[in-house]
Amino acid sequence: MFERAGIEAATHEALETFLGQLQEEVDARRTIWPPSTLKSMSTWQQQDAQEYFSKILDAVDKESARYQRTMSRRLAPGLAALRFPDSRQQQIEGAMSQHNKDETLHRTSEMLLPRNPLDGALSQILKCEKCGFSEGLSLMSFNCLTLNLGLGGDCYLEDLLNAYTDPELIEGVECDECTRIIDQEATTSEQPSVNQVEGERKSKVLSTKAKQILFGRLPRDLVVHINRSIFDDWGNQRKNTSLVNFPPALEIVDDWVASIGGSPSGRHGSYELRCTVTHSGRHDNGHYIAYGKRGKEWYSFNDEVVTKTSEEQVLERGNVFLLFYELIEQDILGELEASEQIDMCSCPTNTNSTERQDEASTEDSK
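Predicted structure:
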């Protein structure tokens, strides 16, 4: 596909080769090494598994974006050459703005490559606690959801999701709607507003707003990063080793999903656990072990040593760092509503991980 467009896609090719090798039946004594392209972070310094994961996805997204741009330019002449009868052509040209034409091109080009199964969208809303006014949803793309463990103790994954989606109160934020209401009341009142200065009626009204982040569109494959980095009383980073209990089947409930029109949308998804990555050791060094599910069987991947294990042993492992869930069921109507929601709201922020705004995890791999 990429050769046809003349696009270099070293990361795609390396992943295809490596995944193909993993699917082959090989001698138990043989060690499969990843291609050099996938070892770009191999240095003498300790590296973080989530950072490496994001680096690989960044490279995949950049190669895909180059392919999309190239094929979009090739499509443009073909679409422009489509001609209708003169009367019909005039009607279409009169009805379609340049924006609509560009949107048509954009949607056509999107069909050239399937959507990354890891890509989802988070919706953020900022709502005034006093008047209830909100300027609407802003959407942020993500491919890895970071949940901060902070100073908390043993907990469940659902507890971290509840904390992540709970509204955060922000005080001292100007509210345009409260300002408009106060100015309107001052205009119709016989007594001037106490905030009226030198004939100017408009006065900034500060309020408390609630910021809430929810799922706007669920990805096909949900990747969750448990950020265990914390600071002690002396400002040193260390690792929170508390146990995070995670389920083999994760149900996304309405409380975590953005609703349409202020009412529950019914959108939800059921995910099955497919892989986990654990980290043992301290904050500045340690060792990663991956546990993957193939069919109904679980396997432990400890460097070159691969052994069979059980789901019970996987769930009991502490120090979980990354969780990989695969969508097995989703409400179809909800999926359509979510797509419409994204089309109607403000443009999404093209970021690979919205959690870059949070404290970056610096846990290290072997």
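Summary: Confidence is low (pLDDT under 50) at residues 332-366.
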